[in-house]
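Structure ticket #2291
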Amino acid sequence: MKPENAAVWLEAIASTLAEIDPENADTYRANAAAGVERMSELEAELADILEPVGDAGLVMYHDAYGYLATAFGLNILGTIALGDAADPGAARLSAIRASLVEAGAVCVFPEVNHPDAYVTLVVEGDDTVRVGAPLDPEGVMLEPGADLYATLMRDMATAIADCVAGD
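Resolution: structure written out below.
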């Protein structure tokens, strides 16, 4: 979830492919260079989208957003679930719910692959914390193709910014 990391992977993949298939090495390297440039442009675009978010307190469904938070200075206060494969228990939901307002949470984000019921329970009775659009960090709702990563990142950034802005 950090375009800079994607750029590193593009270069590593191109290098490996060039070793395996030297006849097409120049094509692999040229494609990687173009991809790295696109990642740089994407990172700047995401920074612009997320800039208004500032240090608004965010609660995510699970802990998959560390790179995103680091890259763009997001203030992730916590997660509903401790991991992608574990549903939160009653004690976890109660703790998150009790700490939302105190921690300064502005938005809580569901995810497309997880039940909304947990998010609903966490914010129930609290009209100060907004529920953002469901995030799709795996891109399961997107059309596969060359623009999947950029679309995924833009969609997440926009959902975060829209929730903080109250849109």
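Closing remark: The CA atoms of residues 47 and 72 lie 6 Å apart.
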